[in-house]
Amino acid sequence: MDRHDTEPEPMETEPSNDNDITDNANITLDDKQKRKKYFVKNREEQKENITTSGLLFIKTFQDLLMKTKAKTDSMQKYMQKILHSIFFLGYINDPSISPKEFIPSRTLDKYKKVFPKPFQEYSTHLPNQTPYSILLEYMTETLDAENTDIFMQELVVVNESLWKLDDDEGNQPVANDFAFSASVITYSCVKDLKNMRFLKKAYGASISCKGKVPRKIMIALSALYVWDKAISYVVCCGAKGPAIQFPDQVHCNAYSFDTKNRKYKEVPPCTKCNKMYIVQFKPEYLVTNKTETWPFGNCAENESLSKLLHHNTDVRQAIYTVKDEGDTPMNRQDIENKFKDEYEEKMKNEVKLLLRSRNFKVPTGDWQFFTPDVQYCNN
Length: 379
Fold this sequence. Notes:
The chain is an alpha+beta fold. The protein has one domain (about 45-355). It has 12 helices and 9 strands. The protein has helices at about 30-65, 70-90, 105-115, 115-120, 130-140, 150-160, 210-225, 230-235, 270-275, 300-310, 315-320, 330-355, and strands at about 185-190, 195-200, 200-205, 245, 250-260, 265, 275-280, 280, 320. Strands 1, 2, 3, 5, 6 and 8 form a 6-stranded mixed beta sheet that branches. Strands 7-4-9 form a 3-stranded mixed beta sheet. The protein starts with about 30 loop residues before the first helix and ends in a 22-residue tail after the last helix.
């Protein structure tokens, strides 16, 4: 089964002049006008797709909270995070989408009253996660995530609520019809060699948002503020950098959702993940002639391995870099220092420019991240 971590990118910004539309100097005025009309139509279709996807995501997550009988504090925490992440991604879309476009008008006032903070901070505070990563976090806390077969089946149920698997005529469009889905889910874990069993699994999702600019922003925010800095470092280095060597007992399994058969299937790592991480992949890496279009940092392996490093001190201290024969390996502290010295400030400046290009209010001091208010409103 082919791996699809992202779908083809939609066009994002309207060309400022005719030269931006084509390099062909001999193109006719009629052709230029047709292409411009197509571009405007593409942007409007993308906006409609994201708006509908956001509404479906909110409804599906609410249904999940009800199904799992979420406690009040947990419901408040996760609903606020989901709403803020969707509102933020809508706001930085081009064209921008306001929060009220994601919520039916008949329930808008109630949402504002029960969950006021996401409505107040979507244009001033940054999210730590994409919507699907938030959903995945809730599910791993609530359901039996150690039984992979059962857990993946629960994710299938969620995906069927999110993705339009067929239309009124029986056609089956690709998962690209949904804007906030994660194409691949990965778990990483340590194998206990004494008992021959896997310890707690750390799940991660591929970057679940549409558009090159939003994806760049979310990868940068993850590298700067969310991921373990060893993950951030190899993502920033990309194809030219070293790989992170994990202990032999660390395993990493990836699953891609098959929309046609409505189930998850194991998939090998992509070329980029295989370049960045020396770990026990299952299935093993397969050499192909394909070149992945998604950027470094997009894959679910990054979030999954980062979570493993966060909660497993022994593994975190054991990792080191491997590059060319004869190079001196870097230990965990060396890697962190290298990221800080070579990439941190540069990445901050780049993401500031991207955010400002989408009219996001970047603070002059410390960056502001959204934190939910768990004080429940009974009204």
